[in-house]
Amino acid sequence: MLAPDTLADRRILVTGGGTGLGRSMARRFIELGAVVTICGRRADVLEAAARDLQAELGAEVATEPCDVRDAAAVEAMLDRIWQRGPLDVLVNNAAGNFLAQTHRLSARAVDAVLDIVLHGSAYCTIGCGRRWIDSGRPGTVLSILTLSALHGAPFTVPSAMAKAGVLAMTRSLAVEWGPRGIRLNAIAPGNFPTPDATARLQPAGHVRAPAERGIPLRRVGEHREIADLAAFLVSDMAAYITGEAVVIDGGKRWLGGARSGGEEMLDWTDADWAALRARQPR
Ligand code: NAP
Asked: Is the pTM higher than 0.90?
């Protein structure tokens, strides 16, 4: 469906593009002709990803070490990117998340998630939007949510709150910036295994089978599938779609009884939670 020049010469920033789904989306955008910048906090991770993508696809990938929680750092990054050439597309993908009983969360733990997802996405989106509007250019923002943004979820409450805020931003700015030619959409993914997400969010300490998770299509998502959806939504093929959140989850949450995830942890003891904390990466 996607022609090899679907994103020809589009300049795209993927936050959190050095790992996981961000990296898979960046890879697909490059295959489709885009000029991609990836950002994240760890310069070595970004450089390794850029090297691998260049070796595989022959395209240069710009790297921007940047902590999106820091508004000044985001502005400086956008200034540097704009000096190379204005962005056409921003993908808000950077995130943090972990399992915890909400009544045990410290303020710092709450802020750790809200700062990356809610504030980071706002800083990047407003920074790009201001530059697009000031120069009369169109633009596109795609934000990666979670299903919990749509229906809530126990034990990952700051993430659900932050992503719900990003969805509200998406819908609000789709209206406010629509007359400026700026589109904003979102993707709410189900389960797409990545090393980090698996380490942080598998409560049983092992990867449960798709059937056990109640996924009607009986498999987890493939990175290529979410990358294709992202490429479509940021391309001109989706020129009349804005303010939308597309669910890609094998039918689990909406059609499979709206289970929010985490139900199996509702009856956990303090000892179960202590065991989980011991297993989680710091
Ligand atoms: P991941 O590999 O952990 O990706 C998160 C990325 O965000 C990392 O590259 C990380 O790099 C970056 N990041 C974190 N904090 C940052 C900060 N303060 N500033 C800049 N970059 C930061 O996890 P993933 O599974 O690919 O997740 C990607 C997105 O998909 C997230 O938005 C996640 O919520 C969403 N999602 C994933 C799944 C899934 O099944 N995988 C399901 C639902 C939603 P550094 O640590 O180097 O900064």
From this structure: yes
